[in-house]
Design goal:
By secondary structure, this protein is of the alpha+beta class. The protein is built from 15 helices and 20 strands. The chain has helices at 46-56, 71-76, 90-99, 112-116, 137-140, 177-193, 213-224, 239-246, 255-259, 331-337, 377-384, 412-421, 428-433, 435-451, 485-499, and strands at 7-11, 26-29, 104-107, 128-131, 157-162, 172-176, 203-206, 228-231, 250-251, 293-298, 313-320, 326-327, 338-339, 342-351, 357-362, 366-368, 374-376, 390-396, 404-410, 460-465.
């Protein structure tokens, strides 16, 4: 049987030249081999999505009792919004208000103290603070009023989303109306090809914050087709109960929610690849590119990845209308990642024979050991996370040492069962300090390292067991659960030095 192929080559590979690495062939989804699907005429902004859907499905349930607060009003008036995670501290909130020069803020009553903590530094920009508690009778009178709305264009900025920031200050990712409209078009195109289209009968449960581009775009998608959207109550413990009550037909999640692993890019407007549910061979991959963008791999010689080899591997580069417009007020950062029209993701990918992409590494998180060997830390953490006895792991090394160490969150039930079987006394905290427990976890890490044929310098030589899961409270994780590596080193410096 002939190999299925879901991509088509549109440009030839390029050898290394002028100081730039070689680049593999440029591929596009087979659905778009003759060009990308044009956007719907008359739909130029997210407000148009909402307006047209209301006109088309006037009797349908849409947003239920917990409406998307103020977002549609911003869209209607051609303003852009800057959504913030409610877990951000006052320092990050202050930085974003000043950097984006925010003048009008909508904030829940319980979060007002966090905004007030930014005073007086933000007063220069912040002119109005609106608390959205109960809607007053006076405010309800505006429901039937009609306003002259400005004309919106596809090129207008729709939103500026600030990345969680694993290092340094958050970056403002500028996303245009065209970017969001393009991703919606591409998703619809892909679903139609699989007879998996959605309709106004579907119900979507939203539980990711609107500061997360994935949820923002998915909600726009379901609004556009007249589907209903229900909002969870904000309590993880009640999520199953919310699902039972709403009975959604669609549930979208970042991988972290499903298996404690998160990956994704704000800059590609929620999606660049999508695995097909009808193709089992795509399990373990992110699927082929959506039919709205072009993709190629760029060689990374220092990591041994060659985009021109028989098994093409390299940094994933993307171009197309789904991309962001640039980092707000940071042209320098934009130029770092946008080179000759290609967005360099920092992800290392490997093309599969069917045209799907497998993420195998991360370019940005490498360091050199004292003997000169390069270590790809995220790749190793992914491998060591396969050990059933651990929940999370942070791998550390530096150019002054020849080996790696790790801080591990052991699985409590797993460790306590091991302790009972091996007559090791103590509660969970005590077990994490026990030398036999540390030796056992290290043994399990070594075992998986051998199974995966890791090189000698990639093996963990010592561990510190922390009973407290890595969390945002200690500033170790971003709101999207990515590790803040600089903060990890700062927090665990003593333990890292002790076991090195």
């Amino acid at each position: 049987m002939a190999q299925k192929k879901f991509v088509v080559e549109i440009e030839k590979a390029k050898e290394a030249a002028n100081g730039r690495p070689s680049m593999g062939p440029v591929y596009r989804n087979l659905l778009a081999k003759d060009g990308f699907r044009p956007l719907t005429p008359g739909i130029d902004s997210c407000w148009d999505i909402f307006r047209v859907s209301v006109e088309k499905f006037p009797k349908n349930r849409m947003l239920g009792q917990r409406e998307i607060v103020n977002g549609k009003a911003f869209n209607a008036h051609g303003l852009y919004c800057v959504p913030l995670y409610d877990s951000l501290g006052a320092g990050a909130v202050e930085y974003i208000i000043c950097h984006a020069e925010i003048s009008l803020t909508f904030v829940e009553e319980t979060k007002i103290p966090e905004v007030l903590k930014t005073f007086p530094n933000t007063i220069k920009h912040l002119k109005t603070l609106v608390s959205f508690g109960k809607v007053t009778d006076e405010q309800k009178k505006g429901k039937n009023e009609h306003f002259d709305l400005p004309i919106k264009k596809k090129t207008d900025t729709c939103t500026i989303m600030y990345t969680s920031g694993t290092t340094g200050d958050p970056k403002g990712v500028v996303i245009s109306n065209k970017s969001i409209l393009s991703i919606i078009s591409a998703v619809n195109h892909s679903l139609e090809s699989m007879d998996q289209g959605y309709s106004e009968e579907d119900v979507f449960l939203s539980y990711l914050p609107l500061a997360h581009i994935f949820d923002r775009v998915i909600e726009e998608l379901f609004i556009s087709i007249g589907s209903s959207i229900g909002f969870w109550r904000g309590d993880v413990k009640l999520l199953i109960e919310d699902i039972r009550e709403l009975k959604p037909t669609i549930l979208c999640a970042v991988p972290r929610v499903l298996d404690r692993i998160y990956s994704g890019l704000t800059e590609t407007c929620a999606g660049s690849f999508a695995a097909r549910p009808d193709e089992l061979a795509m399990i373990g991959t992110v699927g082929p590119p959506l039919p709205s963008l072009d993709v190629c791999l760029e060689s990374v010689p220092e990591m041994g990845y060659d985009a021109l080899s028989s098994t093409p591997r390299g940094e994933i580069c993307i171009r197309g209308n789904v991309l962001f417009s640039g980092y707000y007020k940071r042209e320098d950062l934009t130029k770092e990642v946008m080179i000759d029209g290609w967005f360099h993701t920092g992800d290392i990918g490997e093309w599969q024979p069917d045209g799907s992409m497998k993420i195998i590494d991360r370019k940005k998180n490498i360091f050199k050991l004292s003997q000169g060997e390069y270590v790809s830390v995220e790749n190793l953490e992914g491998i060591y996370s396969l050990v059933s006895g651990i929940d999370s792991i942070w791998v550390y090394g530096n150019s002054f040492e020849s080996f790696l160490v790790a801080v591990v969150n052991p699985n409590q039930q797993f460790l306590e069962c091991w302790a009972e079987e091996n007559a090791v006394a103590g509660d969970f905290d005590t077990l994490c300090e026990n030398s036999k427990a540390k030796a056992y976890i290290l043994q399990e890490l070594t075992k998986i390292g051998k199974e995966k044929k890791l090189k000698g310098f990639e093996f963990i030589k010592a561990v510190h067991l922390d009973p407290v899961p890595f969390d945002m409270e200690r500033d170790l994780l971003t709101p999207t659960y990515k590790k803040k590596r600089a903060q990890f080193l700062k927090y665990y410096q003593f333990h890292a030095n002790r076991i090195c």
